[in-house]
Amino acid sequence: MTTLPSYDEIAALPAYAEQSVPTAFEDINGHLNVRHYLGIASEGLDEALLEVGIPQNWVDRGFAIFSAEHHLTYLSELHTGDKVSVRVRLVGRSERAAHVVVYLLDDGHQEISYVMEEIFLHMDMSTRRTSPWPEDVAAKIDAAVAEHEALSFPTTLSGSMALR
After folding, report:
1. Contact at 8 Å (CB) between 153 and 9?
2. Domain extents for the chain?
3. Which helix (H) or strand (E) holds 149?
4. How far is Cα of residue 99 from the mean position of the Cα atoms in its chain?
5. What is the pLDDT of residues 64-79, one digit of tens each?
6. Rounded distance, CA 112 to CA 54, Å?
7. What is residue 3's predicted lDDT score, i.e. its pLDDT?
8. Closest CA relative to residue 118, chosen from 75, 65, 54, 80
9. In this structure, are residues 44 and 88 in contact, taking their beta carbons and an 8 Å threshold?
10. Is 124 helix (H, G, I), strand (E, B) or coil?
11. Distances (CA, A) of 73 to 40, 64, 70
């Protein structure tokens, strides 16, 4: 993974899925269970995708997003009651896929707790196969990628995945 940006750099991005870690998410080790890091990060990504024209009920219009690949990095523990938020950085887009980095922040301790790098695919649900992005969504993703490329800090990439 490339060098991490600072908490303040990431916190300057729009916040999604802001919440306190509920007791029910705690595991036997006394911290947030691993599955909930992914769940909270995915919830924040879903919220962020609204801004590029991908609603959560997109399947009602015959489209969907399928995750194809993840790289997960756990940096610091989260505990019941910790205040968290998700920040999203779009990295790139191909004809049928997108590359994103999602940061789960521990806002109380001002730390980056978790980083999720993901490749997701645009799906045509009538065929359940990948299909080109609709033009309006592609344009919005491209604009967000350009905006995020202009940020003053480097993108945190695992080096293990890329758009094809």
Report:
1. yes
2. 8-149
3. helix 135-149
4. 9
5. 999 999 999 999 999 9
6. 26
7. 82
8. 65
9. yes
10. strand
11. 14, 26, 10
Q: Can you read off the two tokens belonging to residue 118?
A: 């993901």
Print burial letters for 105-116: b (CB count within 10 Å at least 16), e (below 16). bbbeeebbbbbb
Identify whether the C-beta of residue 21 lies closer than 8 Å to the C-beta of residue 35: no
Q: Count CA atoms closer than 13 A to 153's CA, side-chain side.
A: 15
Provide the residue type at 40 as one letter.
I
Residue 15: exposure state from Cβ atoms within 10 A (0-12, 13-18, ≥19): middle
Residue 3: name the closest of 68, 73, 70 by CA: 73
* Pairwise CA distance, residues 97 & 73, whole Å: 22
The amino acid that residue 16 corresponds to is Y
Is the per-residue pLDDT at 156 higher than 90?
A: no
CA distance 18 to 15: 7
Q: pTM (2 decimals)?
A: 0.95
* Three-class SS state of 10: helix
CATH 3.30.70.1560 fits 8-149, yes or no: no
DSSP 20-83: EPPGGGB-TTSSB-HHHHHHHHHHHHHHHHGGGT--TTGGGGTEEEEEEEEEEEE-S---TT-E
Distance of alpha carbon 34 from alpha carbon 38, whole angstroms: 7
